Amino acid sequence: MRKVTAMILAGGQGTRLGVLTEKIAKPAVPFGGKYRLIDFTLSNCVNSGIYRIGVLTQYKPHVLTKHIGIGKPWDLDRKDGGVTILPPYVGSNESEWYKGTANAVYQNLEFIEESDADYVLILSGDHVYAMDYNDLLDFHILKGADGTIACMEVPLEEASRFGIMVTDLDGRIVEFQEKPEKPKSNLASLGIYIFNYDFLKKVLEEDERNERSSHDFGKDIIPRIVRENLGKLYAFKFEGYWKDVGTIKSYWESNLELTSPLPPLNLHDPNWKFFTHTEEMPPSYVSPTAEVMNSIISEGCEVYGKVENSVLFQGVIVEEGSHIINSIVMTKTFIGRNCYLENVIVAENVVIGKNVKIGVGEDKKNKYDPRVYSGLITVIGMDSVIPDNVTIGKNCVIGVDVTPSDFESRVLESGGYIFHRR
């Protein structure tokens, strides 16, 4: 029997998602109508028969920890194995934050040793994909590898955005390029690794002693193994669906892809189920006067207006006369009468008043952070309240906990921003 322990890196802040991660860790960001990002990695583990899982948390972990709980939705509430939340190690005298992805695993080597694992699967908790990790493990064992990295071929013009693997004819990695200007390959790392435990432990202990290291798998561990030829490292080519939803645009696009007649990722595949922990809600209600086209309408929704090419999460209410286009509206958001939303991401527990227009007008560069907010998409943070009769342009950002008193005007021009005055 092959003994595998999975370590899910779930402590990331996800700064490129802007206000969507101001209150929660990136792996806890909602996705696809009723899921959170970490659900995909957890579901891949149990579908692959891996039931010993450590979730390494750090940045604002409360929502994530509550969501995972004891792991019951994923059949991980087990006495032998199951899921364990692993915050930064607390010693007798002080608490030490994880210094990097490699340090996070290093601090939890004792947890891995307790499982008597032969292999350690290192995973990110913030990607959307379906993968049978047994295929990766079979390849790893067949090659007699010390470590194997799951990779995907990407267009050469996009390769500079990734860590790139250069391999020989047998698939062994001979060079690693971190976001190269002139990539020698189009084989991009997916941030999914499997290692022989003894080899991983040795490498992590050596890295921990290196004061010049940032203690990161992508920046330090992988390049050093290749550069110093410390072990046999192979690239496993993955040909399924995998998506990094680390930017506002990619997050928006990935959600809306699910509304197509043949979505690239089937969330309802009976042979590869995705599990989640959600609140019990009644079936959705679509009124006789409502119009719903090419959209996902989740449990507990009430739709009295018009919804096109959009994703409504659980418990969303769209009042009569409102029109939602190309938008993502998260759990328990209320949209009042006669509103118009186009190309908008609305976070959880938002209240939008009557006669509100969002995503209208000409596009302008965002004045707050154009690196994060771009592509015509307006983003509204959690727990905000938009007052009646407000018009918000394209490429705007409304922060978390915004109240009606934060609006100095009834018009926010494209590229503008409003944050709560504390």
Question: Which helices and strands occur, and which strands form pairs?
Answer:
Layout: E1 4-9, E2 30-31, E3 35-36, H1 38-47, E4 52-56, H2 62-68, E5 82-86, H3 101-106, H4 109-114, E6 119-124, E7 127-129, H5 133-143, E8 147-153, E9 163-167, E10 173-178, E11 187-196, H6 197-208, H7 217-227, E12 233-237, E13 242-244, H8 248-257, E14 285-286, E15 291-293, E16 296-297, E17 302-303, E18 306-308, E19 311-312, E20 317-318, E21 323-325, E22 328-329, E23 334-335, E24 340-342, E25 344-346, E26 351-352, E27 357-360, E28 378-380, E29 385-386, E30 391-393, E31 397-398, E32 411-412, E33 417-418
Parallel strand pairs: 1-4, 1-6, 4-5, 8-12, 14-17, 15-18, 16-19, 17-20, 18-21, 19-22, 20-23, 21-24, 22-25, 23-26, 24-27, 25-28, 26-29, 27-30, 28-31, 30-32, 31-33
Antiparallel strand pairs: 2-3, 6-11, 7-13, 8-11, 9-10
